Amino acid sequence: DPESPAVAAFRRERAEAVDFHRWLQWELDRQLGEAAARGKRAGMPIGLYQDLAIGTSGSSADVWANPRLFLTGVSIGAPPDEYSASGQNWGLPPMDPRVLREDGYRYWIALVRACMRHAGALRIDHAIGLFRQFWIPEGMGGRQGAYVRLPADDLLGILALEARRHGALVVGEDLGTVPEEVPPTMHSRGVLSSRVFYFEREGDAFRPAAEYEPMSLATANTHDMPSLAGFWAARDVELKRAVGLVESDEAAENQRAAREDEPRPILERLAADGALPAAEEPASPAALRGAVHEFLCRTPA
């Protein structure tokens, strides 16, 4: 309990250690501010692009300091999908949306302001988590959870207000299993979608550059996905099998076989949009990367 006599005694007895950690936080903030200022001076109009994770560790200062807000006995995750056949349990405690609202969203406001303090752009990880979260009871896996709704209008309204005050862009990671209302609701608040080259296709055909969503940030991949070279060589299938994200050798072999057919429509799209001279494999991984990024630069995103 942060308000307990035991904590007060600890603070007195360990004053130097406590001050050291306070100084660390201050110094991190100072250096981040200096990095942002240096970027602006160097001609970066947006500056730093920060990331707001979907949640915080159960052993974090945030959870300890807000014991009513964060729930125990349950964690946030994701149901089974193409990325993970068994679902995902991230081990992060959810916030009680009733307590969040009763407290006037104090914690959410402070969190967003802290993220935008030195940032010209902010990425909201798993932006669907502002609308609903997949809660998994303690001791259970990703197949055994359920969705819980959050007050999205209030959370997005606060996000938009703080972005306006700070002059910052906001990008919502709206990938994976996303309800239809999520992207238009985000766009109505000026929050950009995420559009990833790998996913922008209709059937086997990749979407032309001109058809990308203007209210979006377009990228080749994400931190959760293989590099272009790794994708090309199906290294990600090997790694997924090694860590259990693909459940059998047969399933891995099927994925590798399917991957052999994927480079052709990629090459055809890059050639059709003028990023490659012909629908032929580039001479090097660097040439492939260059072609994909040239293609992305031709989108209205």
Draw up the topology in text.
Blueprint: H1 5-13, H2 15-41, E1 49-52, H3 61-65, E2 74-78, E3 88-92, H4 97-102, H5 106-116, E4 121-124, E5 132-137, E6 146-149, H6 152-166, E7 169-172, H7 182-188, E8 193-196, E9 201-202, E10 205-206, E11 216-219, H8 228-232, H9 235-243, H10 249-259, H11 263-272, H12 285-297
Parallel strand pairs: 1-4, 4-7, 8-11
Antiparallel strand pairs: 2-3, 2-5, 5-6, 9-10
Helix pairs in contact: 5-6, 9-10
Please give a structural write-up.
There is one protein chain. Helix content is about 45%, strand content about 15%. The longest helix is centred in the first third of the chain and has 27 residues. The N and C termini lie far apart (about 50 Å). The chain is an alpha/beta fold and about 300 residues long. It is built from twelve helices and eleven strands. The radius of gyration is 22 Å and the shape is globular.
